[in-house]
Design goal:
single chain, Thrombin, subunit H, 56 strands
């Protein structure tokens, strides 16, 4: 049974000034952001040409359909194969002038609305890239690459990864609006696109560039601009965090927080009211706390939702609904302040759905005194009430418990597997889940279901095991008419993942209580080994083995064997049954009934076997006896010859037809490794050499006398 989802409030408070982007650091927690480099620039002229292309993209994004003469100029320059220093410097000077003029036309003492913030922000961000890229004006050499900055936009820059391994650096962050934040020798500074420390490392703290300025701290907090110029100290600010669009969160000496813009050093006026807390809510809104109440404000500081709620949190990332808490009850409200579900639940918790599961949904669990419901945050539909709801799996299903019964519901809030099961497992690698339902006399009957609720293995068994890695599972039935042992017993069967019965009952009318255990062991990489436990008359069990063909999942052994060896070059398995060895082929056909006390591995198509008379002979790959059982010992055939024995001091050599190439007369016979010749020694120490074909080559006169005497 899977562990069911336990409801708990997932939303926890975190410090607004906590280290940002921690999840994007490398293993050393020094390098932040993806700094993988691409194409290397062949020369400075080529590097400048590619920088011009990126700045043309920026200008295009700003001008949209209103193409200016400057846009035409930069477009023409970007088409050049290379761009020299003079042309490059002239173009960047024009871009610098344009962005300054554009920003000035919309600058006011008081920011009026979000549109104006976004418009000015776009200009400032592009301008920041131009100022950083001016470093290429005077460069005559250097190593530069195409890469992606923190916002995943293509840039041409110094490869920051080359700083890895340098112990002076405690932080190196990918380029953000043209500048890379670094911490060197325990103080912060910034690099431009050329890798120059354009703003020297000197600050206790530093935020990223935020529309042309970065928040930095020595003793006090300041702004530093793209040229390295510091502002006056920021009045009463004790902590600061850059947000976006030139807006930051500041904490003041009185403990209050407010939003400030990049002109705060001059205006000394926050752009929002003061609050006890301010934190990010989503990309457009900020969560604020005033006294005991929470609300929302916009980036321009205007109030979006009054701070009258006990708490509020996003229902889903960047979603249009939020979870509100009022008088210890939770409900749902949109970001316009319209309540969609009145605060009536004790809890509403977003469900974390892993994108790797392959489906998208925005769901939560709502709990009240009746139980729990699924809530679809997209359209605010709710499911019926259940006792528990579990986590969603890769099939988009979550287990539900309705009373004492279990089922599954999908991300569309539709019940796919009705809650009619007393117990239910987790889906395995084959998309199957074990389930048990009520049977007669308070029994449970179990089997396996597909993720659409179809029974693959019928729910008629008393127990089911887990599938092995090769797609087989053991099921068990309590039988009342067992033949061995008599009376009640447990009968096992084996099914495959498609629901096909692979190993059934030994006898349907009076089965034997055989137990099976699947394994992940493979013979010859093609046959699955199944352990088989057969009961004996003395209430013990005998361990045997069966084989299942891996691809077809068909059983090839029609009975269990005490031992099975891997198949040989003849594609035959030596098998043992009742203490005797025989042969079966890869389809399970019996080639030689188990009749031999011992069996050697095949050599040259023949198997040395020991018969009931305790003598050895040879059978062929069809099970036919080719050499009678006359020998006390035999060795494997080598080039058509085998060394055999008829007792101590009676060694000889025979061929495949049992012809005595050397009679059983010799006390010692050796095969010489270098020549594969046979060395024979008789009882008086005389040596004889036969070649690998059995012909005598040394001391042949005496050898012929011995052979002649044996043939008489």
């Amino acid at each position: 049974m899977r562990k069911l989802f336990t409801l708990s409030l997932l939303i926890t408070a975190t410090s607004v000034f906590a280290q940002q982007n921690a999840s994007r650091t490398d293993s050393s927690r020094v390098f932040i952001g993806n700094m993988q480099v691409g194409e290397r620039m062949e020369s400075m002229d080529v590097a400048r040409k590619n920088v011009i292309s990126t700045l043309k993209r920026d200008l295009d994004n700003l001008e949209k359909n209103a193409k200016s003469s400057l846009f035409t100029e930069i477009s023409n320059l970007s088409k050049e194969n290379v761009v020299n220093a003079d042309s490059y410097a002239a173009m960047l000077a024009k871009l610098d002038k344009k962005y300054k003029a554009d920003a000035k036309t919309i600058e006011t003492d008081n920011i009026r609305d979000i549109f104006q913030i976004d418009q000015k922000s776009d200009i400032k961000r592009r301008h920041s890239n131009v100022i950083s890229a001016q470093c290429f004006n005077a460069k005559n050499d250097g190593v530069f690459f195409k890469m992606k900055d923190y916002a995943n936009e293509e840039i041409v820059s110094f490869p920051l990864e080359t700083l890895k391994g340098n112990s002076r650096y405690g932080l190196v962050e990918n380029y953000h609006q043209g500048f890379a934040r670094i911490k060197k020798d325990q103080v912060f500074g910034f690099l431009n696109f050329c890798g120059d420390e354009i703003i020297p490392c000197q600050y206790e703290k530093a935020e990223n560039f935020n529309d042309g300025k970065a928040l930095v701290k020595k003793f006090d907090w300041y702004f530093v601009d793209m040229y390295g110029n510091e502002s006056d100290a920021l009045e009463n600010v004790v902590e600061a965090q850059a947000l976006r669009s030139g807006i930051s969160i500041a904490k003041f000496k009185n403990g209050k927080m407010a939003l400030i813009d990049n002109n705060y050093d001059v205006s000394k006026k926050p752009v929002s009211d003061f609050f006890d807390e301010i934190s990010n809510f989503n990309k457009d809104l900020l969560k604020v706390k005033q006294g005991k109440g929470y609300g929302l404000i916009k980036l321009d500081g205007s109030i979006k939702i009054d701070a009258i709620y006990d708490n509020l949190n996003p229902a889903a990332e960047q979603g249009k609904w939020m979870i509100i808490e009022q008088n210890k009850k939770m409900g749902l409200m949109d970001t316009e302040g319209n309540i969609k579900i009145k605060p009536s639940f004790s809890q509403i918790t977003p469900l974390p759905l892993d994108p790797a599961l392959g489906f998208s949904a925005s769901l939560g669990i709502a709990k009240d005194e009746m139980g729990v419901h699924l809530v679809d945050f997209n359209d605010l539909r709710t499911s019926k009430t259940y006792l528990t709801i579990g986590e969603f799996n890769k099939y988009g299903l979550a287990p539900i418990k309705d009373g004492k019964y279990f089922g599954f519901i999908n991300t569309d809030l539709k019940v796919v597997i009705e809650p009619i099961y007393r117990s239910i497992g987790t889906f395995n690698q084959y998309g199957l889940v074990s389930a048990c339902k009520d049977g007669v006399n308070n029994s449970l009957k179990c089997g396996y279901l597909q993720h659409d609720g179809t029974e693959v293995i019928p729910l008629q068994f008393d127990e089911v095991a887990s599938f092995n890695k090769l797609g087989l599972v053991v099921v068990r039935e309590n039988a009342k008419n067992c033949s061995l042992p008599s009376g009640n017993c447990k009968v096992d069967m084996v099914y495959d993942k498609a629901g096909t019965l692979i190993i059934g009952k030994t006898n349907e009318a009076a089965p034997i209580g055989i137990r099976y255990a699947t394994t992940d062991t493979l013979f010859n990489n093609s046959y699955i080994v199944i352990k088989t436990f057969t009961p004996t008359s003395n209430n013990d069990e005998e361990l045997e083995y069966n084989l299942i063909e891996r691809n077809s999942l068909h059983r090839i052994t029609n009975t269990g064997y005490k031992s099975i060896r891997k198949y040989d070059s003849n594609f035959l398995f030596p098998v043992m049954k009742d203490g005797k060895w025989g042969l079966i082929d890869t389809s399970g056909k019996v080639i030689s009934k188990p009749a031999y006390k011992e069996m050697m591995y095949s050599t040259e198509g023949l198997y040395g076997v020991k018969f009931d008379n305790n003598k050895y002979g040879f059978i062929d790959k069809k099970g036919k006896v080719q050499i009678s059982f006359d020998y006390d010992e035999v060795r494997p055939f080598n080039n058509g010859l085998s060394i055999v024995s008829k007792g101590p001091g009676k060694l000889g050599v025979i061929n495949r037809f049992n012809a005595k190439i050397a009679p059983c007369y010799f006390t010692e016979i050796n095969i010489l490794p270098a020549t594969k010749q046979f060395e024979l020694i008789d009882n008086i120490g005389s040596k004889f050499i036969l070649n690998s074909n059995g012909d005598c080559v040394t001391n042949c006169t005496r050898f012929d006398e011995i052979r002649k005497l044996a043939n008489q």
